[in-house]
Write a structure and sequence with these properties.
Elements (H helix, E strand, L loop, with lengths): L13 E3 L2 E3 L1 H9 L4 E11 L3 E10 L7 H11 L9 E4 L13 H17 L2 H6 E7 L5 E7 L6 H8 L6 E5 L2
Parallel strand pairs: 4-5, 7-8
Antiparallel strand pairs: 1-2, 3-4, 6-7
């Protein structure tokens, strides 16, 4: 069909409002925290900045730290303001491949779903809608929004989700 598909690794670079952020730099700073066993930083879609850094953290056994404390630690130690994570999520275990590499695509799916849930906002849309992000490999991510009952006005949903950089589809749940 004369199509050319360029495939490969998803980019790890986070682009936040024109700032190119290497997640490795932020991860290394998080690893310096004595409570952290494992950390990964990914770019989550953001309506204002394009992407924002989000941290996923596993604490060492017996350690305790709140997400607020970890975000404050990052804010104190990350030298570039744009690279400071906006959110931090504690995980019981980091998703890894059989060879021990962190599966950042699974973390991206989680971050995308959280951002779309937040963008949907009010209780009416949230109570009637289910958000599911799908990693389509080389074709990128797609967010499927399933709505029970009457479909809300697409204009309202589009206004809330248009600025997020991930394509989405709204469907009536079957």
């Amino acid at each position: 069909d004369n199509w050319l598909w360029i495939t490969g690794r998803a980019k790890d670079l986070i682009i936040r409002g024109g700032h190119n952020i290497d997640p490795k730099m932020v991860e290394e700073i998080l690893f310096a925290n004595p409570a952290i066993q494992d950390a990964a930083v990914i770019g989550a879609p953001d309506a204002h900045s394009g992407e924002v850094p989000v941290a996923y953290v596993v604490l060492k056994p017996g350690s305790q730290a709140s997400t607020e404390e970890l975000l404050q630690y990052a804010a104190t130690h990350v030298p570039e303001r744009a690279a400071i994570p906006k959110q931090c999520y504690l995980l019981p275990q980091m998703p890894k491949t059989a060879v021990g590499k962190i599966q950042k695509n699974l973390l991206r799916v989680d971050a995308i779903e959280r951002m779309f849930d937040a963008a949907l906002g009010d209780a009416l849309l949230k109570s009637n809608a289910t958000v599911k992000a799908v990693d389509r490999g080389a074709r990128g991510f797609l967010v499927e929004i399933s709505v029970t009952g009457d479909l809300p006005d697409h204009t309202e949903i589009d206004q809330r989700l248009r600025a997020l950089t991930v394509p989405y589809e709204v469907r009536r749940a079957s």
